[in-house]
Every structure is written in structure tokens, then in C-alpha cells.
Protein 1
Amino acid sequence: MTFLSQIVAPMIFVILWSSAFIAAKFGVAHVEPFTFLTSRFGFVTVIFAAMALAARAPWPRSPRAYFDIAVVGLFLHAFYLSSVFIAIRGGMPSGLVALVSGLQPVLTAVAAGLFLGEPPSIRQWVGCFVGFAGMVLVLSDRISVEGVTLLGIGFSVLALVSISFGTLYQKRNAAKMNLLTGNAVMAATGCLVTLAGAALFETMQLVWEPAFIGAFLWLSLAVSLGAFSLLMMLIKHGQATKVASLFYLVPPTAAVMAYIAFGEEISVLAGIGILVTAGGVAMVVLPQAKRA
């Protein structure tokens, strides 16, 4: 990746990933979580498969390759997103869910050093904790203990573990997958898992309100096709700790988007937090100057 793409691609990823929280606020109000995700993953599977066939993209060559890609889809698509949606729908404050899952860069940094041979530098460790501190400031006036349950905390932790494990597993076992066919397999895996959840626990009714349709199309096309493809590319070409640190920028970016979309106020403390978070992420992702 060129230096320009190292800057532009992460910026686009953060914007698209952050927009998912805004779109979900419109969509999930009309449709149950598993049903929403099943329809989204099914639609995305068809699109990626069609694009792969049109481009004659190579499919995985062995059952093990399919298995590795499916594991990534299981954790990044099915477990992570389902856990976040269930926790929030169950009354867990979204700010607290974001705070728990926001520990991902630290957890990924530790695991990357242990299992991938990518130990973070001292500057990256400092950046991880500075970024987390900034994210806490951003979410400080949005976190409430009202509605907190053991079940909600459990699903928040499951979301944290799922996205961290999925990121590391993709980096170690599925980094060479084709983006089109790989994403088709991952989306299909997420669709099958959430379909089982919808069949067991939900009514499986889709309410075709304009808000749901808009959210569905945006989450499917911009987030699942765009953001997830960028995430896979960034993991393939970058250090796991650097990629994970980008998730610190999601709450601040989502806060700015919520201000634009819903008029949600950004406090002075949150504004400071946005700057602190950006500084922490910069310490992790920007190349360190070499001494002469």
C-alpha cells in the first residue's frame, strides 16, 4: 500500500464503519436484530457472489481455506454484530457497549504480541491507552448505568472478544483470501448463523418502512460491501495493532455524525476526547521517524 492509501483507506473505513451506528438507529427500531442481520447478510452474499462470478475471482481451493474464512465471518459478522444489537436492544446503554467493545485495540495488541509475533512498540502501547482514554472522554456524558444487566454486559464482552479474535484469525489464517469470494463466504456464514437465531427467537417479520429500507441499503452496500472489504484489506497489509486502533476513532466519528443527523450535542469534554483519541491513534498507526 502507498503512503496515500495508508492514510485515505483508514479514513474511509472509519467513516463508513461509524455510519453503521447511525443507520442502525433507523433500522433496528422497525425490525428485530437477528432478522435484520439475516436479510442484510443474505443480500450481501448475493452481491459479492455475483461480483465474484462476473470478475472470475478465484474461490478458496481447499475445505480448510473455506473453513478459515467461515471462522472469520462467524466472529466478525455473526457474533460481533449480533452481540452488539442484542445488548442494545436489551436495554444496555449504547455508550457502555461501545466502551466495553472499545477495549479491542488493547486486547488485540496483547494477543498480536503473543500469537502473531507482532509485539507493539512502547509508543504504540502508549497510543493504545491514550486512545482509550480519549474514547472514555467522548462517551463520558453518554454512559449510564440504567438498564445495565449481567446479560447485557455478557453480550458486550462477547462482542469485544469476537471482533478481536476475528481480526487476529483473519490476519493469521485468511489474509490471502480474495476480497470478493472471501466476503461472499463470510457473509453467507453470518447469514446462516443469524437465520438460526431469527428462527429460534424472533418473529422474522420485515417492516418495509422507508427508514428500514434506507438503513438496510446503506448497511448492506456501504458498510458490508465497503467497510468490511476495507477492513480485510487493512488487516492483510497492516499490523493487527494498527488496524485495531482505528476502532478508537469510531465513537468520536459517530458522535459527530449523530450531531449532524440528530442534533445530539457534543460537550466540551467530548470535543477534547475526540482530539485525544485522534492523537492516540496517530501514535499507533503513523510510522515512527528513523533516527540518523
Note: The chain has twelve helices and no strands.
Protein 2
Amino acid sequence: MAAHIASGAALPQSLCGETEPAPVMAAARPGHYPQGAIVGVAFGQILHATLHQFSSCGHALRMTPWRMVLSEGKREMPSGAGLITEPYDPALRVIACSGAPRCREAHADTRTLAAALAPRIAADTRLHVSGCGKGCAHSGAAAVTLIATHAGFDLVRDGSIRDEPVLRGLNGADIVSDPSILIGGN
């Protein structure tokens, strides 16, 4: 939407709020910017208590397309449960859907597995953990995609949930104890 607006498109009046959109910026990392402080949000979901604490700091908050929040004008980094303040935090390389028990379609707790794997994957690797074959959190390709099924996790390398798995029926605990499974040969 930001690129569309930047190309000259105007929002319909019914969608215009009282605040002008922030200037379009390249993909951000947590840190300080001229507009304020940006923090990441683990797996794109913020706890109510953290949002309440964050929003009561007196600065306007803006959601970004990168699962991050800009606190306008803030000069110090906010803190709170689930906020990512380090620019190269491993959690920024991982995409995970809500997973079980938060989604009735999910076959596994994706967030627990994703959090356990994040520090164990290479810095240049993008990991997607999907609770089912729908891929709600990420429809595109990732270096590693894990898809929960009734029989365990299916593994796709350099593809998406729509691609053929190279391994099937993996146990989440086994993947955590031996993350080389994610990048190893068939």
C-alpha cells in the first residue's frame, strides 16, 4: 500500500484518518530512526500488557509492514515482553503462524518451535513454520519451510508450503536437537 500511495494514488476519503502516513522507508530493523524508535514484534503478535505499556508512553504508535512498531519521536528504545530491540535478533529471521492451540486448523505449536529454532539457524536463513498447509503467515518462499501435519512436520527447502517436501513426518524435538536437519541433504 505504501508503494501504491508513493506512486501517486490517493486513499478514498473513508480510509483517510487524521494523521498523514509516515514517509516510505526501506525495510527497517529495530533501532533509532529520524521518525523515532522502531521495535520488532515477535511473530507479529504483541501481548496486550506490552501494548498497553508501550502505548501509554505518550508517543504515537505506527504499525509497519515489517511486523514492527514505530514509536514516533521516541529517543530511547522501548522494552516489554515480546518486543525485539536488537537489529539482528534471530527472531526477525523466523515467520510463524499462530499455531496450536490458538488456531484450530494447526497441527502443532508453531511459536514454541520457531522460538527454539531461531537462534540455531544461520544468519542468512529465513525460516517459516506453518501450523497447517494453508500458509497463512507467509505465502512466499523461504530458505526453510516447516509444515505441521497430523504425522509431524514436513520440510521444504527453498520453497513454500505449496512445494514438495524433501522430508516428511519430522518430530519437532528432533529438529530442535539437530537443526542440521533443516539444511542437510535428503
Note: The beta strands are 31-33, 36-41, 61-63, 68-72, 83-84, 94-96, 127-130, 142-149, 152-159, 167-170.
Protein 3
Amino acid sequence: MGQILSNLTETNKKGKELVIDDGDEQVIPEIVLEKNVTTPVVNRLPSVPKEIVRKIGPYTSAQRILLVGEGDFSFSSCLAVAFGTSHNIIATSLNSEDFLINNYAEFLTNKAMLETRGSMVLHEVDARIMVKHPIIGSMVFDRIIYNFPHAGQFGMTDAERRLHKKLVRDFLRNAKKMIGEDGEIHITSKSNGFFLEWNIPKIGNDQGLNLLQEVNFVRSDYPGYNTKYGFGGDKNFDCNPSKTYKFGLSLQ
């Protein structure tokens, strides 16, 4: 982490350096951040020269990328491998490192793949209050990604269903304060059954965000990505069919 932090430079919240044309499901316990944490204030990840930009899906090595709600970190490690070097990636999980070691066989391998390529890996990061996090809360990103948000409730009562929507709403409320002027927030969620009742586009609109695009998510586009349950155990869930909702800041 120290090596990465030493390369970071400050910039204006709306500034940008490079423009190119080109949770997994998570159980949500209450996490209280420690107060009075002394941490260097940084708000930029290092930029990548255009001539070595690499791409996978809609993501490139030139984008400053934050991933939240990672399970076994197989999605973020997939990006890191595709980019070759990945100083542009910060990957976070809600759970502790001990929980991940005990539940996901490939976690340590995936974490090593990230860190050896230059990524920062953080644990116990709550997407609902991440703007207050002592490290990432002051940073500006080009892409913030939350794959398959889930509040850990499987009942069908109205109260339980509202928890899922609240999770998405709180995440978007934080994320919109952490992207640059041309930044995007990506939420991937299943697109059948009760997941459709969440109406993620409306939640984004209610937060003052523009829905830029809504596309089908194809897991095979990300080699090595495994969709893990956030409450433990090393089983994969079926993510088909799913959609990725891409939001940007309002033009108003």
C-alpha cells in the first residue's frame, strides 16, 4: 500500500488527466469506522500513458477504478491480469481478511495477483458509508463498480425487500461524490424475479444520476470471475440473466 500511496498526487475533485474514447453478493453487517484515524489525504491514482492502455470489457488500464463488495476478489484480479500492471485499481471487500481466507479457496491467490501487479486491496469497507473511509473517501475515480449488491436478506416481506433498495441507494449516494466529471458508476445485478422490483434505474435517478447505458452482463467476458455468495461458503450463484447499469453525474 505504501508504494502506491507514494505515487498518488492531489488534484481538484472535478479535474481529469486522461480521456480515452475507447460483492458479489454481500451480507451487510454494521461496521463502525474508527474515529481519529490519521491517514494521508490523497485523491488520485497514477495515470497510465496512452501508448500502453489495455482493455477488458468497458474497463481500461487508463481508468482509475474502485471495486466494492468483492467476494473472493476474482473480478478485480481478472481486470488486473488483463491490464498487466494494475496500479489504477483499488479493490475492496465488506468482509474481513480472516473471513475471506476461511470461506474462499482462491482468495489469497486472487489477492496476490492484484498486489503483485500494483493494486491496493482493502477490507471492511462499507459501500454505504465509503465516502467517510480514511483512504478512499478523499479519492476521485473514473469507474466505481459494484457487482451483485445484496443486503443478505432472502425473505419476501416488504421490509426485507426495502433493505436491498436501501443498500443500492446508499451506495449511489456515496459513489456520486467519488467520481470525476466524466466518471461512471456501474452496478451489475440479476435482471429477473424480485431483482427487477428494485428498479435500479429509478434509484439512480432519485439520486440525481443519469442512466447512461443498460447492457446485458456476460460473465464469460471476464475469465476467472466467480460469483460468490457474500455470506460464506465457496459456492457460486447463477448470475444469468444479469444487467449492468451505468450511471453518470447529472448535467444539471
Note: The chain is about 20% helix and 20% strand.
Protein 4
Amino acid sequence: MSLRNPLVQSFFDEPTNTFSYVVRDPDSRACAIIDSVLDFDYAAGRTDVRSADAIIDYVQRNDLAVEWVLETHVHADHLSAAPYLNEHLGGQTGIGARIVEVQEIFGKVFNAGTDFARDGRQFNRLFHEGDSFAIGNLEARVLHTPGHTPACLTYVVGDAAFVGDTLFMPDYGTARCDFPGGDARTLYRSIQKVLALPPETRLFLCHDYKAPGREAFVCQTTVAEQREHNVHVHEGVDEEAFVVMRRERDATLGMPRLILPSVQINMRAGHMPPAEDNGQVYLKVPLNRF
């Protein structure tokens, strides 16, 4: 495997504050797409592919070959465009192996029925802690970083790590842990795994919400910056203090605007629920559940 570092291109969807990435091998055409977005107008119940088309345009203009379409976790704030990208660009899908726990939890929440497989088969590859895979000549390795959800992963590719929702910019802090299967203590320990990477490691975030006083959206920080400046988990913050802070903070947060459609679709690897007998696809709203 090459010791070179990846080339990273970010794409930002401001309505959901989401960053997606194309991660390129500098020595070949190979690339991976991480945390794609399917645009969704909730009020109209209508999807759109503007964000995914921007990625497709970039890949095709640069004559890249997509080997992977990866998710850091089952997102609760945006829909995945993985099936649309697969259709147009190919690539294997991948997510953490503990997706099966998320599918079990939310399969019950949405009463998905026996036809909804809860063994992760909707994805091509289920990753475990320490697994590795190739992006062309680059080696990517997997850190299991649960806490926000049971299935959260960090993908480490050379000097770059894609941390999903585990960390935000240092001035904004860390992920919430109050979704089903989340746990603040587990998140603290996962963050320590990320912060044990070399200080110069580039950390690419799935979201940025612009802390008060900051004008620009930012997708990239470093391990060193997080260790020194993260407002929730900088060096010197112990596990007990973090857990108290995180639980108190989470108790004040409302549910993400798109959690109900997002989870129903993302637990299926971006595929819609099956159409009903009239040929129409529907999403469910479980009343008074959250």
C-alpha cells in the first residue's frame, strides 16, 4: 500500500449543515465517497439530487473511479444518496457492523415488519474495529467510535480521518448522545481513540454549525487543535465531567428536523421503504415516541 496521503474534496449542504467528501488516491483514479446527501423537502415529501449530482460531476470531470460509497453512521439529520451514486458511479457501500443494532432498534420504532432485514445485508461491507480496505493504492483503516450511535466509525486514510458526528469544530464541541443506543461515556472513550492519532492528523467533520462569533463554515481541523481547544473535551477534561456536561446539554436539545425520514431511509442504506399496494412509497411518523 502507498504511504501517500489522500486528496480530499469537500461538498457542503447548508440546509442540513452536512459535509460530504470525495477521498482520492493521488497515484491512481481510485476514490471513495463519504457521507453523501440526498436533498429532501420535508414539507412537500419530495427528494432531489442536486447535492449528489455535484459529486457525480466532480468525479466524472476528474475521470475518477469510485470504489466505495461509505457512511460513518446512520445519519439522523440528512438522507443518504448512496443508491443514486451507486447507480451512476458504482462502488461498494460500507458502514459499521453494529448497524444491526441500529436496525433492530429503529426497525421496532417504525414497525418495519419482517420484510425489513436487520442483519445489515443492505450494505456490501460491514466494518469492524481494526478492519482495513483499499482505495486504489491507499490503505484505509477503521476505528469503531460509538457513543453518538452504536455503529459510528472513523475512517483513517493516511494523515486524514473522517470522524462523522463524533467531533465538531473545537469551538462547537462534540456529538449528542441521547438517541436510542447512544451513550456519553462511550462517546468520551471513542473520542480518546481519535485524539490518540498523531497530532497533525487532519480531521474531516460531517457537520459544522458555526459557533457564535464565527462567520465561515469549516470542515477540517486537526487532532492537535481538538486536544487543545475543543470546548467539551480538551486535554484535562475527565470522563466524569464530560458525561455530566453531555447529559445536561443533551437534555436541552430538540430532535433533528429530519430524524424521522432520515433514519427510516438510512437504516436501509439509502433505499426507500417498499411501496404499498397502490405503488406509492410512504414514510412513517411515530406519534409521541421521541
Note: The first helix runs from residue 50 to 61.
